[in-house]
Write a structure and sequence with these properties.
The complex is a heterodimer of chains A (235) and B (189).
Chain A (H helix, E strand, L loop, with lengths): L5 H6 L7 H9 L1 H19 L11 H10 L16 H24 L16 H4 L10 H25 L3 H4 L3 H24 L4 H24 L10
Helix pairs in contact in A: 5-7, 5-9, 5-10, 7-10, 9-10
Chain B lengths: L1 H10 L3 H23 L2 H18 L9 H19 L2 H11 L17 H5 L4 H12 L4 H8 L3 H18 L1 H4 L7 H7 L1
Helix pairs in contact in B: 1-2, 2-3, 2-4, 3-4, 5-7, 7-9, 8-9
The chains are: A mainly alpha (235), B mainly alpha (189).
Amino acid sequence: MSHISPERLAALVDETATPDEASHLAECAPCADELAAHRRLVRLALTDTPREGPPLNDWASLGAMLKSEGIIAAAPPAPARPARTRWLLRVAAGVTLLLGGTLLGRSTSNVDFALGGTPAPAPSSAQGSAAAAPVFASPQAAMQVLTSSQQQYSDAAAYLAAQDTTSHFIGLNINTYRARLTALDNIVASTRTALYQAPQDPVLNQYYLSAMAAREATLKQYQAALPAKQALERY
Amino acid sequence: MADQLTIRRAIHGDEAALRALWVQYAPRIDAVVRRLVGDPDQAADVAQEVWIQIFRALPTYRGDSQFATWAHRIAVNRTLNALRALRRIGKAETEIEEDTASVEHDGDRTLLAQTIDEAVQKLSPGARAVFVLHDVEGYTHEEIAAELGITAGGSKSQLFKARAKLRTLLKHLVDAPISQDTSHVAHLS
């Protein structure tokens, strides 16, 4: 039998040799060496990772595409009255903290949060005695809880916005929502600016995400509070 | 964990977060695109499409796998779509018939490739895609056939030709330390 072709040797890395090929490989050292080289090639490919290089595009062009696709959110409008920014920020931060704290507290205290629902069972003695400050195994574990709580907060805020049964009791109206949205926009804008400087900062991230979630929820409430047939275009 | 926060901000359309993800992962993702596409200009266009697709799909990322793994899968799929759109794969199937496994031998070391990346760029587009998908990415011939619109037999044929060519281009990397019969290599090529 003549030597086995290169392509057939390449195939024999995956496939079983015929009896003729097997007996040839047993006797022909060059063909056996070639088959071994093909096996080394496949192992090399399997463990090889592409050589990293500079990105193929620059952010200016990609960012422009992402903006045109609507993937990059439009920047929130600049505050109309800069002199009031600091005051608004303080109030808005208080609102965010109050809402976040209330929602987180309720969502983690096992109290039925559904408005008009039946009361949830009282917490067990183990839960009732868990008044001491929680101990975390590591900063990563604490951060995980923080992230998970943030998600719960966002979900709860969205749920409340959909229900919107609280407005009647505490006198919220369109003007309230409008003021809140302006304040939240300011928080989003200032934390976003700060995140350019410190993108990994967990406090800034939490404030930013809380403000975004509260803003989305408020937008829904605002839209629902508008008179019928009036579309939300600006506030 | 910081990634999760960045990803959540990116889902909200925050440019700084989107940019941070791109800066962190573009070298790796773009390298995969570059390897599959070959031509640098076309690779840049495809990479842009890939990143738009990654960011568009971001809300579906559940965190079950590493972000790099998730993005890598999208990059491969989107690149294959782009290659199909360029009609390069189907054309390549006929090209490969002429693109035999032989490599010219004139003793010039420039004909050898120093890395797999470099060697892969010397393959025809179809052979390159099949080799990368099968031997690097771990796709089966059936999956490759479905992705590229060819038959499983065609995929196998292209793979074996690609391997034979790469074996020669990378002989300095895959030859046994002590060559027993160098004349045989020349014969096989």
